Amino acid sequence: MTPSASADLSRLLFDGRYEQNHQDLHELLLDPVFDAREGLDMTGAGKLAYARSRAVHGALERPREIMADPWRLFALAEWPSLVDVSTFSLLMVHYNLAFGTVLEHGDREDLKDLVEELDRLDSFSPYMATELGYGNNVAALRTEAVYDTATQTFVLNTPDALAQKHMSYSGFHDIPKLAVVLARLKADGKDHGVYPFLVRITDSDGLCEGVHAVPCPEKPVQGLDNGLTWFDHVRVPRRNLLHGDMGGFDEHGAFHPAPGNRRKRFLRTMSRILPGRLCVSSAATGAGRASVYIALRYAAQRLTSAPGRSDQPVIGYRSHQLPLYTALSKTYAMTFLLNHAKREFAAAPAAGSLPAGLGDLVSITKALSTWEMSEVIATCRERCGAQGIFSVNRIADYGSLLQGLVTAEGDNQVLLATTAGQIIARSGDGEEPAPAPDPAGRDLRDTAFLLAALRHREEQLLGSARAVMADGSRDRTYFEAWNDTVNTGLEAARLRGVRTALECFTGAAGAARTDTSRTALGLLAALYALTEVRRDAGWYLARGVLTTEQVERLPLEADALCAEIHPYADVLTEGFNLSPELLRAPIAADDYAAAFQRYTGAFGPAADRTPERS
Ligand SMILES: Cc1cc2nc3c(=O)[nH]c(=O)nc-3n(C[C@H](O)[C@H](O)[C@H](O)COP(=O)(O)OP(=O)(O)OC[C@H]3O[C@@H](n4cnc5c(N)ncnc54)[C@H](O)[C@@H]3O)c2cc1C
């Protein structure tokens, strides 16, 4: 049987896994515990996020099972933030970063009691990597765990103010916490590098002996207990070292690190960061889709004046269509890019021997998708006018979520620059760049042509970056050489993401099973590609990849595409499998005025006295 167009779009967006991995999460979030709550202070909102996290945990299979299936983990990352952005943060830290580290490096018989405590969520597990002085440079962290052979314990200590753990969830002292703490392991007078330890932070009596923690200052929307934590010679049993295959103790009680360099061991210690970045992207694209869904539903019923009439739904304006349909095209593009990255991750062999290109793909996906969704969400917020600023209408909260996501689990700029550096170092040997596409007679909706143009720019930028980096004619330090290269490298890495996203997008359009979904995706892919080429139209013109006439036509072609996408807008958003009942945003309801009135409890005119709309 041929599926409906929206079902077909949903199949493509959820990679055929909606029923298997997502549907029960969607249904769980209909529970009244996730209803919007007004008037909570930051502590109240934070406590509610813990209660909601427990509700999610109680309704699903155990964390151990979820961690065994990356698709399920990514689905868990996608849904809770739609109704509470703080619940997402708590769940991801507990499930992926902390418990994931425990399972990968400490799933041993002698730790069974602690592993089960975390699996049952009897204690939450904060992940303590970042320090006040060490953020993106976390590999240089200073918290130390010195092994005491006599007592077979580690002495965990914060040597100075800059080594205090920063941002991890330690501000509430009445919630039991068993943290994964990253610390520099010192034994026999040697520094063996950074390892993860299980450390009890709070129990039923509050903060444990030697542990100090205060909440960080308030931040808008996310009322969680991010804190500043320091350790004063805390005794940690030897078994709590999560050494995995990164080292161990011999029969005489001496610690030996695994062979190999420290950098590799550090990356093993941080192994949950890679899937964590895909979780971050999942939440970002989910929030982006929900923002577009809400903004488009509102725009279809929000009336405004137009020349000659006073009741024009605002979406009829091309000035509303261009930003919102461009946003729609970006949410599709980023979702397809993310699906590709998830597939590559799920197909990769066990951690420790990951394919070289996977890290690049995941980093680029994380950076590009969170940046794009930040822009999408800001656009949707603005296009909803005053309604866009209310928390209950969600979009403003998603904006706050995205501010955290571009920074957490690898700041976008640093992540992309590091990736660019690696691509530049690897590329070039014997690679023949593709020739510039000839623009003569090419249609601006031809995605094959636009793809070739994007690929050409990516290759040219990479070539320039490589040449600048390798330029031996000037006496420069490595830092100076990198500084001359970094911004070109950043743009090249971004373009690699855009180009890959477009390839995935056109692939999805080609795999559509209905005429409607195929046509709708084709138009949307063309808008995405055209928007990207338009961004750097001057460069393409200068390089002869676009003609003057084509550059002049770019804005008109974008408008024309929006007009053609317009009849498909509903079906394209139906593919998101969202609903007003799930999001509970008054402006996403079938009658926003009645829903807003119901939510505020206003005694205004009855809904049936609202004027008829023509
Ligand atoms: C909401 C939220 C929750 C968090 N939760 C946790 C948690 O649970 N546990 C935890 O351990 N950490 C947590 N963090 C901390 C997070 O991991 C760090 O914020 C992140 O690693 C970036 O470090 P930083 O904020 O210190 O930024 P910095 O490293 O200080 O960067 C500041 C600026 O400098 C730029 N920059 C830095 N280095 C370079 C470079 N080499 N080249 C060019 N530019 C550079 C960055 O792009 C950025 O713009 C959380 C952060 C947020 C926002």
Distance between the termini: 37 Å
Largest sheet: 7 strands, mixed
Based on Cα principal axes, name the global outline: globular
The count of helical stretches stands at 21
Low-confidence stretches: none
DSSP, total strands: 14
In terms of DSSP E residues, the strand content is 5-15%
Q: Helix/strand-derived class? A: alpha+beta
The residue fraction in helices comes out at 40-55%
The pLDDT mean sits at: 95
Which value, in Å, is the CA radius of gyration?
Answer: 26 Å
Ligand kinds: flavin-adenine dinucleotide
Describe the fold and architecture.
This protein has 614 residues and is α+β, with helices and mostly antiparallel strands. The chain contains 21 helices and 14 strands. The chain has helices at 5-13, 18-28, 42-59, 63-67, 70-78, 85-106, 112-119, 262-269, 273-301, 318-347, 356-383, 395-407, 412-426, 447-470, 478-510, 515-535, 537-542, 548-565, 569-574, 580-583, 592-600; strands at 127-128, 144-148, 153-157, 165-169, 177-187, 190-203, 206-207, 211-215, 226-231, 234-237, 247-249, 255-257, 303-306, 309-313. Strands 1, 2, 3, 5, 6, 7 and 10 form a seven-stranded mixed sheet that branches. A hairpin with a 4-residue loop joins strand 2 (144-148) and strand 3 (153-157). Helix 11 packs antiparallel against helix 13. The two termini are 37 Å apart. The model has no long low-confidence stretch (mean pLDDT 95). It binds flavin-adenine dinucleotide.
